[in-house]
């Protein structure tokens, strides 16, 4: 996984965070080997205090999230007692108040942190926190799969195009849902929601590629399996339970009409679903 790969994927995740939550600003950055978090990726207007900021381990919201490896939400940054306040001046200069941050963990290492931030009073627990965490988990799996494919061969041109199209579909889906929420006419709103649902199932359950309809998780599992990994190794790479990996593999084999894991991988490669 390269820094550019992380940065590009993080920018797309930040865009979805902002669209889905209505955050004033979504931002984040990589965590280096020394444990420092560099704030360098943004979606939304920044007032100039955050870009280039480096957070020390355990300091501020992001530094603590990176070390503890779990999400933290604060409804009033300046009043919370769960973090240090070393960077209060920066947060005040950006006029931010409510923030939620979550780590990006790959191979049991924190490689980055993403935030959703509001300049107004906002309860950032519940749905908003869940949305940011879900984007972080999706980003982790993208990075894990990318790391495997980059060390076991270059993606085919067709597979690369399919991946790019899937990313565009997810982005358009998020934008349609945001637009639907701002429309007063119930019929128009319902039509927009229906159109969005046709692009991608809300639960991420189906994604048509080639001759079979596989979920993103099934494609991820097959991709890593194609690198020669066992189910136990796949579970470790993707951060899934072994039972879950077996379930995805069984489902993918059934959809592809394969009787073995190897056959499923071969069929998926033939149809350009995986590299």
Describe this structure in words.
The chain is 51% helix and 15% strand. It is of the alpha+beta class. It has 2 domains: 3-136, GAF domain (Beta-Lactamase), CATH 3.30.450; 157-270, Winged helix-like DNA-binding domain superfamily/Winged helix DNA-binding domain (Arc Repressor Mutant, subunit A, Orthogonal Bundle), CATH 1.10.10. The strands form 3 sheets. It has a 5-stranded antiparallel β-sheet, with helices on both faces. It has a two-stranded antiparallel ribbon with strand order 2-4. Helix 1 runs antiparallel to helix 4 (127-151) and helix 9 (242-256) crosses helix 10. The two termini are 16 Å apart.
List the helices and strands and how they pair.
Elements: H1 3-21, E1 25-30, E2 37-38, E3 41-43, E4 54-55, H2 60-68, E5 72-74, H3 88-93, E6 98-106, E7 109-118, H4 127-151, H5 157-181, H6 186-199, E8 207-209, E9 212-214, H7 216-225, H8 231-238, H9 242-256, H10 261-270
Antiparallel strand pairs: 1-3, 1-7, 2-4, 5-6, 6-7, 8-9
Helix pairs in contact: 1-4, 1-5, 5-6, 7-8, 7-9, 7-10, 8-9, 9-10
CATH class of the largest domain: Alpha Beta
What about the largest sheet? Answer: 5 strands, antiparallel
Rg, please?
Answer: 20 Å
E-strand count: 9
Average pLDDT figure = 84
Summing up helix and strand content along with how strands pair, one would put the structural category as alpha+beta
Helical segment count: 10
Can you tell me the number of structural domains?
2
The general outline is: globular
The percentage helix is 40-55%
The quaternary state of the protein chains shown equals: single chain
Spatial order of the strands forming the largest sheet: 3-1-7-6-5
> Strand-residue fraction?
5-15%
The H-and-E topology, N to C, reads as HEEEEHEHEEHHHEEHHHH
Low-confidence stretches: 153-158, 202-210
In whole angstroms, how far apart are the ends? 16 Å
């Amino acid at each position: 996984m390269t820094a550019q790969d992380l940065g590009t994927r993080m920018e797309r995740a930040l865009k979805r965070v902002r669209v889905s939550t209505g955050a004033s600003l979504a931002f984040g950055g990589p965590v280096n080997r020394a444990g420092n978090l560099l704030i360098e990726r943004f979606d939304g207007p920044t007032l100039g205090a955050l870009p280039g900021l480096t957070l020390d381990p355990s300091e501020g919201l992001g530094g603590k999230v990176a070390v503890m490896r779990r999400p933290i939400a604060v409804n009033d940054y300046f009043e919370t007692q769960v973090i240090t306040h070393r960077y209060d001046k920066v947060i005040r200069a950006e006029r931010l108040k409510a923030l939620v941050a979550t780590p990006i963990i790959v191979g049991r290492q924190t490689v980055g942190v993403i935030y959703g931030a509001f300049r107004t009073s906002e309860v950032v627990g519940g749905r908003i926190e869940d949305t940011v965490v879900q984007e972080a988990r999706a980003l982790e799996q993208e990075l894990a799969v990318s790391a495997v494919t980059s060390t076991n061969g270059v993606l085919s041109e067709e597979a690369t195009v399919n991946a790019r199209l899937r990313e565009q579909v997810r982005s358009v889906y998020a934008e349609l849902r945001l637009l639907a929420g701002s429309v007063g006419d119930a019929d128009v709103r319902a039509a927009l929601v229906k159109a969005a649902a046709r692009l991608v199932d809300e639960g991420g359950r189906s994604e048509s590629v080639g001759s079979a309809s596989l979920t993103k998780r099934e494609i991820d599992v097959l991709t890593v399996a194609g690198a020669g990994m066992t189910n136990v190794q796949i579970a470790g790479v993707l951060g899934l339970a072994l039972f879950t990996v077996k379930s995805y593999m069984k489902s993918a084999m059934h959809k592809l009409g394969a009787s073995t894991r190897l056959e499923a991988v071969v069929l998926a490669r033939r149809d350009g679903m995986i590299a």
